[in-house]
Every structure is written in structure tokens, then in C-alpha cells.
Amino acid sequence: xxxxxxxxxxxxxxxxxxxxxxxxxxxxxxxxxxxxxxxxxxxxxxxxxxxxxxxxxxxxxxxxxxxxxxxxxxxxxxxxxxxxxxxxxxxxxxxxxxxxxxxxxxxxxxxxxxxxxxxxxxxxxxxxxxxxxxxxxxxxxxxxxxxxxxxxxxxxxxxxxxxxxxxxxxxx
Amino acid sequence: xxxxxxxxxxxxxxxxxxxxxxxxxxxxxxxxxxxxxxxxxxxxxxxxxxxxxxxxxxxxxxxxxxxxxxxxxxxxxxxxxxxxxxxxxxxxxxxxxxxxxxxxxxxxxxxxxxxxxxxxxxxxxxxxxxxxxxxxxxxxxxxxxxxxxxxxxxxxxxxxxxxxxxxxxxxxxxxxxxxxxxxxxxxxxxxxxxxxxxxxxxxxxxxxxxxxxxxxxxxxxxxxxxxxxxxxxxxxxxxxxxxxxxxxxxxxxxxxxxxxxxxxxxxxxxxxxxxxxxxxxxxxxxxxxxxxxxxxxxxxxxxxxxxxxxxxxxxxxxxxxxxxxxxxxxxxxxxxxxxxxxxxxxxxxxxxxxxxxxxxxxxxxxxxxxxxxxxxxxxxxxxxxxxxxxxxxxxxxxxxxxxxxxxxxxxxxxxxxxxxxxxxxxxxxxxxxxxxxxxxxxxxxxxxxxxxxxxxxxxxxxxxxxxxxxxxxxxxxxxxxxxxxxxxxxxxxxxxxxxxxxxxxxxxxxxxxxxxxxxxxxxxxxxxxxxxxxxxxxxxxxxxxxxxxxxxxxxxxxxxxxxxxxxxxxxxxxxxxxxxxxxxxxxxxxxxxxxxxxxxxxxxxxxxxxxxxxxxxxxxxxxxxxxxxxxxxxxxxxxxxxxxxxxxxxxxxxxxxxxxxxxxxxxxxxxxxxxxxxxxxxxxxxxxxxxxxxxxxxxxxxxxxxxxxxxxxxxxxxxxxxxxxxxxxxxxxxxxxxxxxxxxxxxxxxxxxxxxxxxxxxxxxxxxxxxxxxxxxxxxxxxxx
Lengths: 172, 785
Prior knowledge:
The complex is a heterodimer.
Chain A: H1 24-30, H2 37-48, H3 53-63, H4 67-76, E1 88-93, H5 96-100, H6 103-114, E2 127-132, E3 144-146, E4 149-151, H7 156-171
Chain B: E1 8-13, E2 16-21, H1 26-32, E3 58-59, E4 78-80, H2 84-98, H3 104-107, H4 111-117, H5 140-148, E5 171-173, H6 183-191, E6 198-200, E7 207-209, H7 226-230, E8 236-238, E9 249-254, E10 263-269, E11 272-277, H8 291-301, E12 311-314, E13 317-320, H9 323-336, E14 342-346, H10 352-365, E15 371-373, H11 382-386, E16 402-406, H12 410-413, H13 415-426, E17 430-435, E18 447-450, H14 456-471, H15 477-484, H16 488-495, H17 499-509, E19 514-519, H18 529-543, E20 548-553, H19 560-565, E21 572-573, E22 577-578, H20 584-590, H21 602-607, E23 616-620, E24 634-638, E25 651-653, E26 663-666, E27 672-675, H22 688-698, H23 709-719, E28 760-761, E29 764-765, H24 766-769, H25 771-779
Parallel strand pairs in B: 1-4, 14-15, 14-23, 16-17, 16-19, 17-18, 19-20, 23-24, 24-25
Antiparallel strand pairs in B: 1-2, 3-4, 5-8, 6-7, 9-10, 10-11, 12-13, 12-25, 21-22, 26-27, 28-29
């Protein structure tokens, strides 16, 4: 048996200038503390919504953390982002219960409707599509979350409909 | 490792009672008792990681299978390392590891034949061997498969299918073979502090990588090769070795490319260098090399442009001649010259035997004191003065509380020394770095000083003056008076260093009990070299009043000290005895009268041509291209390559590389280190001392005849104390000279000292000769500049 396993390479878009001065209070707060890596990264993400490369470089040079360490941590935890996200994050559950209830159909339909890949953000910056492990409400399988709202017992077309409603309300 | 030597406890391993220091791990205990426990991620000298789970053991009254590398021993512990159950679990763990690692070579029935016969030049289809990996003899998986007697793997194959990285200089990266033991990541961060490698992604997609997936060059790789040395698979491998095969021999030698003089282990097959590691037979001990020792020797030894036969210059074209012809021609011409007509310029990348032979030949056979090295330092008496300081051992560096490193780009020029400074920084030593431009050492510094180029001497004066006031140090009167004259404001303008910064430096130094001054070579390459030296000595004197202060001089080139010590100097005979004083020691030893007139230095020989009646030169190594060399009547060069200067030469002789030589060098710690031949030099190359002996024989001079390198060594040791670090010496007083600091900044003559090419071997620029090195120098950018 042969399992194809191709490493995902994260492409990082060049998004032009970022205001790095916003990081100064954060650096001041954590600069000389031990174990400051994750609070710094979380802080940076709170400021920009994602962690821009320039922010990495500034954090590395001013706090003494290695760039490679920071990158390793950011790629390890799902909470960190290297690219900006949309206004609404669609989390489609792919836990065991949802998986057997055909969660894949939700992702596939949403991919088609949004014209993005898994993990991608739509061109208008409204939606980011994500696959996650268990959301913790298996009785509602298959489940997705948009923002803080949970939607259960869906199929592909229902999921797309919910997304479209939000898009319409946003466009008005 | 963390053992408290006082307390020993007794443990039982596989029924064997042993005493081990409290605090050691089960693995340490077993190793000390000669009991083998298989490991993959464990690396002596690094923090235990417990990642591979192969070192699991059974311990009485302990649940489960703890890992030997992370479990500390306790009194009366009963450990079992080889029960059938353990072996079966280990086998399963190895199977799981191998389900990600191409393993057909590991369990193939024909593996013995394959390893012996698979290496062929591949221009046609090869039927023997599957060649998944570089298979350079470093694969520890092979040993484990053997040990656990693994015959088949039950799990599905989950190869990664990632592209191997082949465009990296010096080593290839094929992460398909990686087993994620983390050795490279840990050595890069914990031992070398390079911070290039990290684990990226998570779970199934975890791989070793760099930040943002950049190339190693862009990520700031220093190419120390530590990751390649510790890799237990073929995932990281030296490019030079990949076409040679599994090494069959290994030779311990000394790296001559910088003055640290690292011990190195050259692994060879036939007459080829396969790879170079820090220890015999093994590549995984944490003793480290740098880019020079690790990668360059193989490239330079087997360089395709090497000249291997004597050449004669016929109107600009090089024609091959035999050695007999070459010696005849040289002898014929040398007969015409003697005394000041003739001179020898040697290389600081040569053994003391060759250096001694060159200077003796010059003085005894040719009757000339015109003997020098190229390139030289401005201050001609520098090495004699350096000799007045007790040397500091490289391994002692980590024990200092404060390190003041000035005028040095040590991470390039002396990476191993700079690595110890990084370690000291992580052991909470105060590091003060001062240089005219930023370099990587600043990343590991508490105080970062950047002075205006060429203002080193004024900066040192600033420090000395503040040190005197802050610590109330009593200097001899002349120095105190001189210091009073210094205007702090003028000094600040001249160096660009504010008074507050100077105060901070003094504050960092004041509480330290042990202080080390590391003086870089740029201090001694400027015209104020003498002042810089005197100032440093006075600072050393002042610091010694309240702390134990050591001084380290980062001179470049492997054997510069040794070569000068054995007499490669126009003013000094071996042992720094002055020619002018008409010393009898060497006249008596050599049975001739040595001229009591100092010889010409390299500069005086060349730049005053033809007015100085200097007519003939024997050059070992290279000189900067100088058109006045055209004025020489007869010019012999001995070098491994044809250089820019060769066009002026009449005869060009091939030379040995240090990997082929036999002899000794004296390193920066002033220790005598041995150089052993790992490979044979190409057939028609002769060592320098032998060429000189042949010429001497033709000249019918009986006082210079050698048949073996050892004869020269014995002659040197009979007359000269080479255990120099132990001899006691008196430090003389160094007078303070006063630079004129009142010249306004705009009118000040700025002396630019260009960063030298630290990658020279016998005058040949390795950054030009070695394509990988060229790629590195051209592209060097990224975060560390």
C-alpha cells in the first residue's frame, strides 16, 4: 500500500507595508521575560489579525527569539496565521462523527461556492474556509461554525445557503 | 552529565552491579558499564530529548517503559535493558520509523554485495544497488536494523515525496530520508546558536526546515556542518563525498585554515577524501568544526585546477618539465645570487618543519636574512610581544564572567572561538562587542559598540581613561600624565561613542572576577597597530588590578605564530632571537656565521624593486599581484594553483596540501599540534623541504640535507622549546603613545581597513577557487548579513 503524502508548503503573500510601531508596547511588555515566545506571537496576531513577516523580523531582532523557532511554533499551532483572514471564518468540522456524516461534502461545496481552497480566503476578504477537528457537538453532525454561530445537520447546499445569506447581509 | 562527583550510588543493570555518580541518567550508567542501549535521537553533550523511544528500558517498580536517556538513576535501581519484550517493542518502534524512511537497502538480502559493489560512475544504467541515499557509512539505521535483527516491515510505506535540495552549497538535503530525530535542530540551536533549523508544521507534515522555507543561505546558515555530522541517516550529506562511497580509512589531523587548529578526522576511501568529521571513525561527537575544516579541505585537495607538475614560463605559456630539469634550472640561477640579492617569502599556512627549512635554507645556503611571510602585519614585533602574554585556552573561554571582544569578525575568522563566546553569553557572561561594523557576534552581546572606522586607538583610550578614574588605578607616572591630557569630548566626537556608553562598559566589567579581552586582527592591520597593542596591554594591566584578566589575540592563518617562532622573520631567528644581536645559538647549531644585518621584509623586498638590488625570490604560496615583481631576475613560485602573481614567475612548482603533509603547527593557544597525511599527494609533487634539500645538494652545500620531515622536527625540538605555553615570560612595560584626537571629525583621515578575505589557503582565495564557496559569498544575505 502506498499513501501519498505531499507536504503542504505555505505560500506567504506580499501585502505591502505594515505599521510595525504597533508592536512596541507588546515588545516592551514581554521583552525580558522567559517563555515570551507564544504571548508575543499571540499579541502580534491580535494587532494585525495575522502575523506579517516583517513583524516576525522585528520581534526576532528585538526580543532575541530565533526566527526559525518562531516560525516553527507558528506552523505548529493552528491558532496562528501567516496570511490575513477574512471577516468571517467558516470552520467545517472533520471529526469522526462529522466525517462519517459526510463532512467532506460541506467542504467541497463551500470550496466551489467560495472559489477558494481549504485554508484560503475569498477575494473580497469576507470568508476564510477552514477544516478543523472536532467542534464538540457531535450530535449535530455534520457541523460547521461561522464566527460564533454553530450550524448542524447540514448538507452541502444548506451550508452554501447559510454562507450566501451572510454575504448578502454584508453587501447591503 | 550533571554529575556531582562526590556522591556515588549503586545500580544494577542486567544483573551487573555498578557504581555511578548521582544525577547520571540510566543511559550514562549503562554506557559506563559497557552495556549497549540502542539510541537514535540521543547526542552526547546535548540535553536529552527522549524523542525516538528506542532507549526504553524496564525498571523494577516503575510502570511502563521509561527512556534511558531521560531517567535519572536512583539508589538500588534495578534496570533491565535487553528483555525479549523490550526488543520486540524496539523492533516495532524501528518499523514505525522505517515506514517513513526508504528502507529497501536496510532489509535487502543482497545488501552486503550491494554496499561493496554499487559505486560505479553512473553514465549508463545501473542495475546494482537502488541508491536511495548517499550511503556514506554514517547510517545508524543500518546498525539498528542489524542489532534488532529486523527482517521485514509490516507497516505501509508513507514516504514523504518531497523534493531533495541539491542547490545548497557544500551539502545536500533530502528530507525523504529524515527520521525527525531532531539532532540537527538541537545542535544548530543549542550548540552552535545559529538558529537556522527548526521543526516546522505539525503531525504528519512535520519536517525540519528554516523560517519561511527559505534556503539555508538566506536563513543565515554558517555552514559549520554540525548538522551533517550528527545526522544518523543520509538526509544531510556532504556533496564531495557522495560520489566516493563508504570510507575505509580515517586519519586524525589538524586543520590549518585558521589559527584555532581544530583536531579533525579525515575519512578516506582509496586516495579520496569522503568526508571530514570531528572524531576518528565517528561523525557524531559534539566536538565541532567550521566551514573551513568541514568542507573546504576536500574541495581544495581534489581541486581540478591543481597543478601537479613543475612548470616553466616560456613567454607566458606554461610548459611541463621534469623535477630534475626544474631543480637544475633553479640551481643554475640560485648560484648567481647570494646574500641580499636573494629572499624567500613563505606562507603562514605551512608546517613549522617547512617554515624552519625555508628560513634555514635562506640563511645557511643562500646567506640571506631576507625571509618573511605574506601577508604580514604592520607591527613587525607583534608576535614577540604577543608571546609575552600567557595564552588563553579555547575551552577556558566559557569560564569567563566578562568578555570584551574588539576589532574582530570572529564568527567568520575564528568560528570556534566565537562559538565559545556565544556559549559564555548563554551562561550569563557579560559580552561587550566593539567593532567598526555590525557582525553576527553582536547578536550575542550585552553591550554593542560601533566605533568609527579607524578610531580603535581613541576608543581604547576612552576606556583606559574611564577605567583609571572608576577603579582608581595607579598607572606609572608617564601614562597617568598622558591620560590627563585626553579631552573626553574630542574623543567622543572622534569615535562616535558617547561617554555614557563607555561608562556602561566599565560598569559591566567592574563586578567581573574573570575578564577576557579578545583582540581581533583588524586592530593590528591598521597603521595604529602599535598604539592599539600598547593600549590593550595597559587595559589588560588595569583590569588585572581587580580581576583575573586574560588576553587572546585572534591572529589569522593557521600557523602564523608557529612560522614566526621558527624563524620566518627578517629580524628574528627561531625562538625570537634577534638577528641584530649577533646571537651565537643558531650560528653554532648550523655551523655558519649568520649575517648580523636584519633582512628585508616582504614589503621592502617588493615595493623597492629594482632599486634595492634585490634580484631573486622563492615564493611559497602567493603575493598580491604587484607589477614590480616583473623586475626580478629569477622568480620561483611554489603553489597548488596558478595565481595572478604566477605570470611573473619563471618556474612554478606544485605544492602539497595540508591533507597530504606531515608535520606540526602551533595554534592560537600556542599548543603544538600534529598534521598527518590522509591522502597521498599526486605523484609528481614534492614537499618544500625536499625541494630545498635537492637544490642544496646540487649547490654542494652539506649543511642542509634532509631525508625525512622527522629529521627537521628533531632538529627544531633539540634547539627550541616548543612547549611554549608552559614557559614563563616577563611582560615588558608598554608605553602609551598619544594619537592626536583634536582634529575635527571632518578633517580626520579615515583609514579604511577592508575586511580581509578570511578564506585564504597559502594565498589562494578559496572563495574564488571553490564554486560552492563562491555561491556562498555571492549570495550571502538574509537576516545576518
